[in-house]
Amino acid sequence: MARRIDKELEEFRRIMEVPSTFEEGFRWSSLLGAIFVALLMVPGAIYMGLLAGVGIGGAAQWVTVILFIEVARRAHKHLGKSEIFVLFFMAGSMMGGLGLGVQGGATSGLLWNQFFIQSDAAAAAGFTDQIPNWVAPPLSSESYSTRTFFHVDWIPVLIMVILGTSMSQISNMVLGYGLFRVASDIEKLPFPMAPVGAQGIMAMAEDIEAKNAKSAEESWRWRVFAIGGAMGLAFGAVYLLLPVLSGALTGTAIQIFPIPFSDFTPKTGNYLPAFATGLSWDLGNFIVGMVLPFYGMVGSFIGLIITAVANPILYKFHILNNWQPGDDTISTMFKNNVDFYFSFQIGIALAIAVVGIYQVIANITAKRREIRKMGGDVKMNLKAGSRPPEGRGDISWWVIIFCYFIITSIYTILSVFLLYMHHDYQWNTGIRNVFYVLLFLGFFYTPLISYVTARLEGMVGQVVSIPMIREAALILSGYRGIACWFLPMPLANYGTMTVFYRQCELTGTKFTSIWKTQIILYPIILISTLFFMNFIWGLQPIPSFAYPYAQMMWELDAATRSIMYSATTGDYSMFEQAWNVRYFAIGGGFGVVLFSLMAGLGAPIMLTYGVVRGLGQTMPHSIIFQFIGALIGHFYFKKRLKLKWRQYIPVVSAGFGCGMGLITTMGVGITFLSKSVIEMSF
User: Fold this and answer.
1) What CA–CA distance (Å, rounded) separates 625 from 285?
2) CB neighbours of 125 closer than 8 A, spacing ≥ 6?
């Protein structure tokens, strides 16, 4: 029996073809881009995060790329698409800051650690003396009065930063690559969101080539990219620039469109109890709806409708029993996760993994049968079918597997040793139970959720996340104390890296270029991030009146975390009721039945994954505009432009992101200027 071909999957596979040759994108001159971002963008990102909670990651990437293209052009140099992609990757890595809390006022990293141990919330909960020295020195350290991380008391913290960030970078790059090999080379998934970034890079490269081209038709990507950029500039001026500038210049932010969304839940709760309602006014959602697979968006909307019907019923039968009339979106989704969706979504995620593994085995079995019928060599043909393109810069499977086991083992052993040391080198049942938790998270949950995410990214361009899995595991372990919350746990979702590798492949960039770049970038990112964090902390206490976002939000987050941390001190916690075996079984059964039913009906596979996405895993406020965008794109633009529409819209989306990034960068620059003005007393 011939295998059924999903037409929409095939359509997305034809948006961009994988090139036949791959080029080296790493150049030593590209390091100028990293230094540029390190010196100019990193301090701006930290400052804007503390000041207004705004990130400039996308802005930094596009500004860096455009600037260096123009510099190269005036120097009569040519930047290929591989070199542009590496520049784009460099800027993005710098803004990521190795997870040290660079972007958006993140409550993580060294700045957060020094605040938390000094916070009122930690003092009120009695945690000040329980925070381990690998997180922050004790309050008696003089480093808090001098406000510097470069002090002997911070050496254990800095050692943990170096160990944690280095292992994280290695595992992300290598294990993300391994999942890409499975999802792309073996399962042949289309990765619908990958062309968005890749087409933007292609547009930049095509614009360079079009300067000497006789035919204007050859530069269609650049024209479409420019249209998207103009849209991003216009919308960004109203959505982001106006509130940033008004807040910086007058102290009061003017918002025409509420950020991040309009929340209707307190009012609609009387009619739709326990269901979050509202709208996100970001035009990017409308464009994303056009980019994503149509049936995936239809499925998401169906999932949203199912949730809207199911939640009031679950509330009526006292399953969603923590929700109260008047709760807003955040409270509603948090309480619903605790009452039902936490266990339910774990079950669905497991079902996705089981179905995915089954599909892989079924595809391999079907290929074997076809090869045998044709009288071919099964092993040789299967190996050829999953063989990566020549010259892409691939590595052997044993390296990936070895890296996974070594990194996971190091995380586990290091975490257990830290707990053992924290308890004065006394072994107890709590440490033993945490060890079991680490084994579960590292060797079962992480590969499971990473594979599920890789398949969802490959199918519908979405990430699956199960809330509070770490929290529930630690609470259920029975450990007493708060040190377990600060361990370098082997918990990650490497599936998100698969889209990056797909973009790398589509732009014809050798994977070795990325790995070389990451090795060179690591010390630059680490040094610049630590230096500027130390410098900004030295200017003013963090948080303080100089950083209103951090002053307003960090204390609230500290209080919330203190409540969570108290769950392992023997006090009662809401998280104890989050895990329910019955709801987990219902989620797993629902997922298997859903996939089986859809497969039996011959429904598009993206419709099934879309339904899963809409079942409480995504903020409902964005799905509405995404669905509207999908309808307009499918029934109007696609009918007029045919397959060209699928080629155009990712370029429009990339241009839109560039425009939004540029306008955000301008807002950051003006904000810096306004803050640098010295007010005279006469």
Assistant:
1) 6
2) 562, 565, 566
For residue 144 the two structure tokens come to 């808090």
pLDDT of residue 2: 43
Whether 277 is covered by a domain: the verdict is: yes
Domain of residue 314 covers: 107-193+257-641
Q: Are 614 and 304 in contact (CB under 8 A)?
A: yes
Residue 5 lies in a domain: no
Flag whether pLDDT at 427 surpasses 80. yes
The answer to whether the CB of 514 falls within 8 A of the CB of 504 is yes
Answer whether 273's CB lies under 8 Å from 612's CB. Answer: no
Coil, strand, or helix at residue 509?
strand
Q: Which residues contact 432 (CB under 8 A, 6 or more apart)?
A: none
* Residue at token pair 């916070």: 119
- The per-residue pLDDT for range 277-329, each reduced to its tens digit, is 888 888 888 888 888 878 888 888 998 898 889 999 999 998 888 889 988 88
> 593 burial class (0-12, 13-18, 19+ CB within 10 angstroms)?
exposed
Q: How many domains does the chain have?
A: 1
Give residue 46's identity as a one-letter amino acid code: I
> How many C-beta neighbours within 10 Å does residue 65 have?
24
Task: Give the Cα separation of 202 and 506 in Å (integer).
Answer: 9
Can you give 253-278 as a three-state secondary structure string?
CCCCCCCCCEECHHHHCCCCCCCCCE
Task: Specify if 10 maps to a domain.
Answer: no
How many angstroms separate the CA atoms of 148 and 141, rounded? Answer: 11
- 81-96 and 194-210 helices, crossing angle to 10°: 130
Q: Tell me the average pLDDT of the chain.
A: 79
Report the range out of 26-30, 140-144, 224-228 with the highest average pLDDT. Answer: 140-144
Torsion-angle region of 424 (φ positive above 0: left; ψ -120 to 50: alpha; else: beta): left
Res 204: pLDDT: 65
